[in-house]
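Sorry to interrupt, but I need a hand with the structure work. Go ahead and set the record down below:
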Amino acid sequence: MTQALPSPTRQTALGLARGTAGGLLLGLPVLMTMEMWQHGAALPSWKLLLFYGVNFLVLLILEYYSGFQDEETALDVVQDAVIAAGIGLMVAGALLWTFGVVGPDMGAREVVGKVVIESIPVSIGASVAAGQLGTRSPQGERKRREAGDWGTLAIALGGAVVFGFNVAPTEEPMLIGLMMSDVQALALLLLALVQTHAVVYALDFRGSVPIPEGRSPLGVFFHSSVVTLALSLLVALFLLWVFGRIGADTGLLPTVHMTVALGLVTSLGASAAKLLL
């Protein structure tokens, strides 16, 4: 008879399998997007390294609240973030090679750039899925309940990056920003704000957050929803800058309009993360 795997080994294997599946769920559409291949080859190395560093910070946040295992120490969280990053690199590299996007006839910089940038959504998907597709641990549930304002914002940051990454490399946010008038940009900003508040507090989704006792709805609106939207707009601005959609020569109004356009997406991701994580 085949001997059953010890429980910790089996849990680790299941976590890795879930992480790989989650990485594919989130990353496959981007892995098959030509614009992402081009960005991987064209982005300056320092900007690519900075982006990957921000991604690792997001992985640390996600692993703390929804990781592969029941993390007890900071070292456990870092270890799981490294595992998620490794899954991202391996899955992205294997699929890009299978698709014929990378190969031995290309320069090392082009191959590394394409694999690294495509590994980002895969690694985030791996990190999220390890917790969401499996059984949540009591300690993980406690962490989420006791996240507090800063912890909730950290979770929102992860969601904003996840959603924004799938749209920021495309030309559409830039084109929408350039086509919008000031009035339309303001209307879209207000829509993003209403969405940010309603998804978490008002629409009774599973995981919706009740307004804390002793705090007024208006206070929660400004203290939580407005701050979350501001964070989402900063993420949108960062992503647009990374992918070269805005720069020093971009005017103020076009920059604001493009940021608001992408901010609608990042704010939805931030709100969704508060519900799911």
Observations:
- The radius of gyration is 20 Å.
- The longest helix spans residues 74-99.
